[in-house]
Specification:
about 80 residues; mainly alpha; 5 helices
């Protein structure tokens, strides 16, 4: 795995952890964000036959869904659209 990709992932983790630390219940906020992200990824996968939009399940999409939540899933969808 390229070093720049690991560095970008580490920066994302630090930013999300810092934002969660500012909340009243930090762990609950992180868990809720991860659950919503995985649910969003599952919704995209379940609706793929109807919409034609598919996301492959790989370490990148899994990381984006669990660490970044729903904005991560939307970001992956936008990256797929652009690339």
């Amino acid at each position: 795995m390229p070093i720049w990709l690991m560095a970008a992932g580490a920066i994302c983790v630090v930013v999300v952890a810092r934002c969660a630390a500012r909340q009243k219940h930090a762990l609950l906020g992180l868990l809720a964000s991860a659950v919503c992200g995985v649910a969003g990824l599952a919704a995209v996968a379940l609706l793929a036959p109807y919409t034609g939009v598919t996301l492959p399940l790989n370490p990148f999409t899994g990381f984006a869904a669990t660490v970044l939540g729903v904005p991560g899933v939307v970001g992956v969808l936008l990256l797929q659209l652009l690339l």
